[in-house]
Design brief:
single chain, 277 residues, alpha/beta, Rossmann fold, seven-stranded parallel sheet, 44% helix, globular, oxidoreductase activity, Short-chain dehydrogenase/oxiroreductase, SDR_fam, oxidoreductase
Length: 277
């Protein structure tokens, strides 16, 4: 029996963190394919601009403001979809922040915000979405993680930890969701060209545009694969690197990023939103 794949006639697609980056590009991509897309983020103005940009496409965009760190907000968003717009067919849980962490300058707030948005924010959307889909007997969920969740990388102590947790979460939930008729997928992009990644202080091999990322994700959502990851050659190399002994892994990452040669961090680094926010 093939897993459920959401098509426009099945209902609404909900994308969190849709005001910029991957979320924004994916909302336009799916609206262009005829989907009715509900978009959520904290910036009302950016969502309205996104809605206007979708005018003339075969699908449409619905603006539903909300902060993923507020569980009640996400309950209200789900209620609005269910009672005002129709059946939720697919949820793409994409909101996230990237706050660089340097051991010379650790700050509790960087970890707390990363966990609140990237991890708890997903849970806050996941619970009402699953409850709705369970009642309907079908649905599709995509959790946007990152290849930084495969293994530790420089500046990724907070961000990578949340993304690793999302990978485990999606894998663990799949066992039960399969029996409920709810299809769950994991999205692990490589480096995507966004304002956030442009601030990375190390080389980013195989960098892709947000438009290319949206095309890859949209295609993966229509496939039977569990993990949507791209560009394949790069992400496969990262997976294989994680199988190496730690002594080799740390040497390899230091060499590729040039991190060992970089001077220690001198002070606080600016807060940088990840592409998903």
């Amino acid at each position: 029996m093939r897993d459920f794949i959401a098509h426009p006639e099945h209902g609404i697609v909900w994308i969190s963190g849709a005001s910029s980056g991957i979320g924004r590009a994916l909302a336009l991509k799916l609206a262009g394919e005829g989907y009715k897309v509900a978009v959520t983020a904290r910036s009302h103005e950016k969502l309205v601009e996104l809605q206007a940009e979708a005018n003339g496409l075969s699908g449409s965009i619905i603006v539903l403001d909300g902060d993923v760190t507020d569980a009640e907000d996400m309950e209200h968003v789900m209620a609005s979809i269910e009672y005002e717009h129709g059946t939720l067919a697919m949820a793409i849980l994409n909101a996230g922040v990237y706050l660089p962490v340097h051991a010379e300058d650790l700050n509790r707030a960087d970890f707390e915000k990363s966990f609140a948005v990237n991890l708890s924010g997903v849970v806050n959307c996941l619970l009402p979405a699953i409850r709705h889909m369970k009642a309907k007997g079908q649905g599709q969920i995509a959790i946007v993680s990152s290849v930084t969740g495969y293994g530790g990388l420089p500046t990724g102590a907070a961000y990578g930890a949340t993304k690793a947790a999302l990978i485990n979460m999606a894998e663990s939930l799949k066992f039960d969701l399969d029996k409920m008729g709810i299809r769950i997928q994991l999205v692990c992009p490589g480096f995507v060209d966004t304002p956030a990644t442009r601030k990375n202080a190390f080389p980013m091999p195989s960098l892709v545009s947000v438009e290319e990322a949206a095309r890859e994700i949209a295609a993966g959502l229509k496939s039977q694969t569990f993990e949507i990851t791209f560009p394949k050659r790069f992400t496969t190399m990262l997976k294989l690197a994680r199988l190496l002994p730690y002594s080799v892994y740390f040497t390899l990452v230091n060499r590729v990023t040039g991190w060992r040669e970089r001077p220690p961090s001198a002070g606080r680094h600016p807060v940088t939103p990840h592409a998903a926010e």
